[in-house]
Known about the structure:
Mean pLDDT of chain A: 95
Bound molecules: thiamine diphosphate, magnesium ion
Strand content of chain A: 5-15%
Structural class of chain A: alpha/beta
Number of helices of chain C: 11
Oligomer: heterotetramer
Largest interface: A-C, 46 and 55 residues
Shape of chain A: globular
Order of helices and strands of chain C: EHEHEHEHHEEHEEEEHEEHEHEHH
Structural class of chain C: alpha/beta
Helix content of chain C: 25-40%
CATH class of chain A: Alpha Beta
Largest sheet of chain A: 5 strands, parallel
Mean pLDDT of chain C: 97
Amino acid sequence: MSTEPASETQWREPDPPGSGVIPCVEAPAIPRETQLELLQLGLLQRLTEDRAMLLYRQGRIPGSYYTGRGQEAVGAAAGLCLGPDDVVAPLNRELSCHFARGVTVADVFRNFLARATGPTRGRDGNMHFGMPARGVFPLVSMLGVLCPVSVGAALAFKRRGEPRVALTFWGDGAMCTGDVHEGMNLAGVLDVPAVFVIQNNQYAYSTPTGREMVNTNIAERIEGGWSIPCQRVDGTDAIAAYAAIGEAVRRARDGDGPHAVEAFSLRMHGHAAHDDASYVPSELLDHFANRRDPIKRLRKRLELDGVPQSELDELHARVSDEVAEGLAEAERAPPADPDTIQDGVYAMPPSHA
Amino acid sequence: MSTEPASETQWREPDPPGSGVIPCVEAPAIPRETQLELLQLGLLQRLTEDRAMLLYRQGRIPGSYYTGRGQEAVGAAAGLCLGPDDVVAPLNRELSCHFARGVTVADVFRNFLARATGPTRGRDGNMHFGMPARGVFPLVSMLGVLCPVSVGAALAFKRRGEPRVALTFWGDGAMCTGDVHEGMNLAGVLDVPAVFVIQNNQYAYSTPTGREMVNTNIAERIEGGWSIPCQRVDGTDAIAAYAAIGEAVRRARDGDGPHAVEAFSLRMHGHAAHDDASYVPSELLDHFANRRDPIKRLRKRLELDGVPQSELDELHARVSDEVAEGLAEAERAPPADPDTIQDGVYAMPPSHA
Amino acid sequence: MSEITYLEAIRAALEDAMHEDERVFMLGEDIGHFGGPFGATKGLAETFGTDRIIDTPISEEGFVGAALGAAWMGERPIVELQFADFISCAFDPIVSVGAKTHWRSGIRFPVVIRAPFGGGIRGGPFHASCPEGWFVGVAGLKVVAPGTVEDAYGLLRSSIDDDDPVIYFEHKGLYRRLKGSRPTPATRTPIGKARVVQAGSDATIVTYGAGVDLARTATAATNGNGSSVEVVDLRTLWPFDEEAVLSSIDKTSRVLVLQEAARSTGAAGVVMSLISQHAFELLDAPAKLHAPVDTPVPFAPELEDAYLPSVDSLTAALDDLLSY
Amino acid sequence: MSEITYLEAIRAALEDAMHEDERVFMLGEDIGHFGGPFGATKGLAETFGTDRIIDTPISEEGFVGAALGAAWMGERPIVELQFADFISCAFDPIVSVGAKTHWRSGIRFPVVIRAPFGGGIRGGPFHASCPEGWFVGVAGLKVVAPGTVEDAYGLLRSSIDDDDPVIYFEHKGLYRRLKGSRPTPATRTPIGKARVVQAGSDATIVTYGAGVDLARTATAATNGNGSSVEVVDLRTLWPFDEEAVLSSIDKTSRVLVLQEAARSTGAAGVVMSLISQHAFELLDAPAKLHAPVDTPVPFAPELEDAYLPSVDSLTAALDDLLSY
Ligand SMILES: Cc1ncc(C[n+]2csc(CCOP(=O)(O)OP(=O)(O)O)c2C)c(N)n1
Ligand SMILES: Cc1ncc(C[n+]2csc(CCOP(=O)(O)OP(=O)(O)O)c2C)c(N)n1
Ligand SMILES: [Mg+2]
Ligand SMILES: [Mg+2]
């Protein structure tokens, strides 16, 4: 038991010397195609969010705006590890996971722009949307609460003997909520196919992980406290994350009970658009930006593995177009309609007649 | 990490062969006087509860009735480990702890009998009372919630640099509540002088610990999950419990942060008076009744250490008289007064004038 | 048909629903072989197995959240709270997830939360309260509270059939007190519909839960005395049957709202709000609220008896109303 | 005296109270050097140190519980919730421990829970709600909601002085919108006392929070049109000033309750209940409730604007009331 907060910038061996981008791990067993898909999903998140941030600053996205910069690999990896019948509850930083499930750029922008035909019909904003038809649960802001909800989904699969898993994410900060304890404990006792991906991005809003908990090695805590196997993985390495989450998903699906993965990264933007994150040491940010950017790391790995620059540039261009087209499509969508505001409060409106 | 539920009847080495009462550990360092006090407190709980159970069955105690039979040693030990300025939040099974703080038998019966002059003035029943003047917080039924409350008391001590500790109890079942997670995590991060005594009595109502959690070694979980040092102790051994809780209290008081103790025992009655506990294997009950009754164990130790039978019998008789007198005193107390029911809803009633 | 109690009607509804629909299962503390603190699920684990009557750890937020998740996947879970009081521990998933998700996304949550509420059993501040008011008014939730054996069955079946989260407040004091014939498996009490339990012309009592029996008992005497009081059982507290309340007032021109929840909690607020907005021209006297004072539920028999509405206190309040 | 905003008044109250009383300290997420999501505690950590402005882990139940424990020991903690919406996550310690303990045992809890509530900032269902109704009516709790700069200061100071748990609902939409002179450190707004913000004779608006400014703005026009509307700011929502409400109605004979909370939630229930019981002989028209429909708060500007009471919607409602 370590009571010393782990150093925030480092979670295992020091990074290799040098100053260049650290490529993702080599993983010949993971098909090239999958690796390219990971890159594509990560890029989709990056470019969508970059575009959205601009729109936000122009005042065209109402409310607030959150990105998952620096964490794109985790959502992408989780999304690709799931099968079509699995379900997932992503949070704010996992736009790539939505894309992996088939949510489109236009869907996303329709939500950001609060359009009538968006996934929440303008009723909720930001990343607070799901896509029930694609097994994606809409984010609920109350941190932690989606843990027991996904455990319940996994329980349904177990009850019916279906080889499906329910996956959810939470952050280092949300790790402190009672719901996460109750949910993980329940998952263990009921032995359900739930997978938990903990995004340890070193901060909860302005609070570093070491002020959220004593032992910041979340994987160690989850194993020790809840007896749930938990692999700690480099969350800026899409390949490593894919391997770790894939194994967790496989084991859960195989009836081996709940599994967890702690993905270590850095939240490279402020908590939301209004937050300049001045509390994050700039060397830490620079280090991650220069050497541990998940998009660059994966691209570097693919380059090292012989994928031609041109192919990667083309991928980038394709994604960029997709974002532009998705946005254009979303902008053509009608605004939310106040006359419909009371529709759907109930699935079965009670008749008093 | 063990994912096998520990066997319910055993938590370390098997009990010594034979069929007789297993004496408490020898502890020459603990003054004889203290050991006798532990016995007295345990007996006070036992005889008060026995009497109350009779009253309950005669219909003279309203509502429901709970005992801590088999766990008397833990409350007594904790109570004696605390100094006069420390505070404590006991639950249902820790009547001996109330006694250690100076709560009287008459106080207790005045609460059970819902009298006007009882600690809650008839507003609450059973063990749902405290004695603020003696640093005893009144039980709140919502399991787990007293964990953060006592952490807050400990925070006050730390803020003011006072060498005081706040101690609370909870059960194996309550270990599963979100509040306990949030409270323990907070205690660790804020590094406050809180002491947690977990009464692992193998059951939460009808549910054995192995269905409450995967790893039933709660001490292991607390260290692994929350980085709080937690000693596992035989809760039917008053001497061992006193030593373990004493050390936790000392360390917490010395600025060493929160500490925990898991006291393993068996709830020897049903959850409450209406529950015959038929779900507890009778061999297990018999084993604890014959060999691990905390009162018998301590008495045996004192006998082995040379305390004359007569002295112990006299102690028993004294306690028995104290209970009878306390009850008689309580019975003379007036019934609760309906005209006062609204007094004290507010400490400062708002004046609308 | 044999007589059964209110509690047995609840058990029968659970049993019938589970026989008819594989998707129905239960989560709660000690509901398995033990049968729950009041025996509501006694025997169900033997019939349906512990995979359908699932004992959970003590984690109300956790298992209410899990019920919502299972419902998301098309199951129809029923959650038992040991006492309604502990609904405070499950508050967040109910109001944040249960209530808002369909409106936001179209996901349905056919979840029933059974919450044994109410006093008269010397439960004190933590085992006798009436917390329904926290949920009455919350968009997306439904709140029901049976006051008869038939509705104990019928409302529970309808709640299980319902695609929205329903909080089912069952009154502990009625568990063994009320008896009635065993409802047929087809019995349903429509959600959202009040019932005129007893017709009358001089005043209306709007009530629910234990108030229904109390209103009947108290007015048996009054009604003999030459006045005739109508009793409206809300049955569904939210969203409630405004029409039924107003049309009874239209008939009687006097109204008394009776509830066991403390007077500034419970369903009184929404009912009184309706009355003050829409019964202005119907009333010949101010509306009356008969409910306990605003304190927690006291434990001592002397206190609880004084606190709870009784035949005497209700009769006095009615006399007051009728003599205005 | 310099002009400050509603938000600055809150900060000033925190600062003055902490200067005057060592026992006052704060717990909350990101309230330290970061200053909280709205900057309410900006600079306080620098002045008072992070031992008095304590950043907590994300655990609302935990730190609200801890505040109660510290208050038990004689401290006077102030808790900040990032958004009032998250009060659902701290519900149990508030209603089970905070509300009931003094009545049961005499232990005092001088705790203030600051809850930024309300819409108009495109917060959507989880960052714009008005959850005060869950606490209005709960014996043992006090609920306040300032609608002016002076009360933002005065009510916060009084809440900190108070020996009972007080939930202080501060309106996010007013943070920077309202400006006023900096209250002196001696300023206190008495808890439990409403204020006639504007005298009038034709109708009474009973409101609180953002409703106060809205009522003033809307009636500025109306009042010019020959009718004169009295505006009563409840300030304390629970226990509230029944006298003030009734005596205004006595004067005007017409009443409209205005709130931003959905119409079946908020303070409307207790106010309407009072009116229907005690204003029967005072009223010349049915009481009116002007409040949003019963849905969560929608995100889209088009929806939120339609949902929230506005000058136009309030004016129309008043016209209605006055022309009855
Ligand atoms: C119960 C609750 N409390 C507070 C908040 C406000 N809040 C939103 S995100 C956040 C920080 C979350 O940190 P973490 O879990 O590490 O996730 P990250 O933002 O780093 O992805 C906070 C405090 C919330 N949404 N829910
Ligand atoms: C939040 C909550 N849920 C349920 C209950 C009902 N309840 C009272 S005691 C108990 C079992 C507690 O088990 P444990 O924590 O092991 O304590 P023990 O009774 O064994 O001392 C239950 C379920 C409660 N009091 N609080
Ligand atoms: Mg984080
Ligand atoms: Mg136990």
